[in-house]
Design brief:
single chain, alpha+beta, 3-stranded antiparallel sheet, 5 helices
Length: 90
């Protein structure tokens, strides 16, 4: 059984959806962010729709998600240069 102090510390370190939203928005191209499996389950659920919710969330942030045993790793996709830059190269 966890002590009251240990439970309080765990509550303070739990990530919220707003925290994850900000973290993914602030990522630079190719950067990574790890989310524990426990936080994933708490934020997105454990039912059939959880994966769809996650896909929609990360797509909106220009990321992809990869699953491991104990975490979900988000990678910010490398953005493509504006069309005007591509035309100048050609």
């Amino acid at each position: 059984m966890l002590s009251w102090l240990a439970r309080q510390a765990m509550r303070q370190t739990r990530i919220t959806l707003a925290d994850l939203d900000k973290s993914l928005s602030d990522l630079g191209d190719g950067a990574l962010h790890n989310l524990s499996t426990d936080d994933y389950k708490r934020l997105f659920g454990e039912n059939d729709a959880a994966l769809s919710r996650l896909r929609h969330f990360v797509k909106g942030h220009g990321c992809v998600a990869s699953f491991s045993d104990d975490s979900i790793v988000f990678r910010k996709l490398v953005s493509t240069p504006p069309q005007s830059c591509i035309q100048n190269i050609e």
